[in-house]
């Protein structure tokens, strides 16, 4: 199972939010420096989110993210502010391994197929951000229907993987809610990367045993509740 440290960017700074609320951002500083910290600690991939893009400013932080991609030269999955096929194509051509399509995938499902057809399914990750079992979009402000139904639809459209973010526990550093992930894994054949609440090696092991393809480490990683090294050990314990 893969371990992906989160590098969430807001106003040019690395931050962590609580349940997506901009007003509850904890600022950590230079995104590139933090990316280097996690890579030096053993990570070999990054989960990068342009929060300004998610909040409607798609071009903000673009130069910073381009620099991060060039300088780290590792696998990067990128989300936030990808609002068109052209946006996604631009990032993939720059070297992003997977684009995460959330609001775009719900608003224009055909975009998932278009990008998969052009670049290959492996480069398309559909975002299943869920609160109370409902997909939420537009910076987690608007509900859009059952998360399992959307996951099935994204698979049928050609997405190569799913990012499941449980908004109910995201940023709280109180552990994962395993049941929604297990239900999702039972409904799709796609690799599922889980995000939201991962705060301990117990959480990592539970996701590994459930069959998740990866886990995103965010708030608990920055707060020091879990370390990259121990998360990697737990993720690979039975390989």
From TrEMBL:
The gene is hisA. Keywords: Amino-acid biosynthesis, Cytoplasm, Histidine biosynthesis, Isomerase. It comes from the Archaea. Belongs to the HisA/HisF family. It catalyses: 1-(5-phospho-beta-D-ribosyl)-5-[(5-phospho-beta-D-ribosylamino)methylideneamino]imidazole-4-carboxamide = 5-[(5-phospho-1-deoxy-D-ribulos-1-ylimino)methylamino]-1-(5-phospho-beta-D-ribosyl)imidazole-4-carboxamide. InterPro entries: Aldolase_TIM, His_biosynth, HisA/PriA, HisA_bact_arch, Isoase_HisA-like, RibuloseP-bd_barrel. It is found in: Cytoplasm. Pathway: Amino-acid biosynthesis; L-histidine biosynthesis; L-histidine from 5-phospho-alpha-D-ribose 1-diphosphate: step 4/9. GO terms for molecular function: isomerase activity. It holds the Pfam family His_biosynth. This is 1-(5-phosphoribosyl)-5-[(5-phosphoribosylamino)methylideneamino] imidazole-4-carboxamide isomerase. Its main location: cytoplasm. Its EC number is 5.3.1.16. It comes from Methanoculleus frigidifontis. The active site is at 8 (proton acceptor), 129 (proton donor).
